[in-house]
Specification:
There is one protein chain. The two termini are 27 Å apart. It is elongated and about 95 Å long. It is built from seven helices and five strands, in the order H-E-E-H-H-H-E-H-H-E-E-H. It is an alpha+beta fold. The strands form two sheets. Strands 3-5-4 form a three-stranded antiparallel sheet. Strands 1-2 form a two-stranded antiparallel ribbon.
Length: 185
Amino acid sequence: MAPPRGAAIYKLILALIYVISTLLLVVKVLSPTSVQVVVHGEGEVYVREVTNVYSLSDVVVIVLSTALMTLSGVLLVLPAKPAPLALRAAISGASLSELSEGERRVYDLLVRMGGVAFQSDIVRRSGMSRSTVSVILDKLEARGLVVKRRRGLRNLVVLRQPRAASAPPHSRLGRGQSPVAARDA
């Protein structure tokens, strides 16, 4: 699947910024300026040329191009974080319009938290009581939108990803992996 057109343009702009700032940095670092120092004495004028000096404008250009090069390079290399809308689109079998206000609030909070959170963190950030969040998560789990996994004394809540419509659930298992082992992994 090809990336969206906006993402491709974004990456292209970042690549151009990276290349231009790199070239500018190389040119400025490899070509320092020369400064003439003129001293007027008693009847004499002394002129001395000092080479390999960076002026204030050279330093500013070097610092800015280094910052732009670093920032654009990091943004090019790092993978894009999935947008919350992409996670919202992951709903299969139920739409957001079918959710109650509390269910939608907890679901949206879980999306903003990256799709994975401890139940206690959801309680704390939502401002709802533990029992209310527990009931809402049970309803979301019954709808197939989330999965609650026990981790010690805590529940880890994970947004479910939609299954591919064409592939049966067991076709994505690793070699020698049973459906039970894959579910518990």
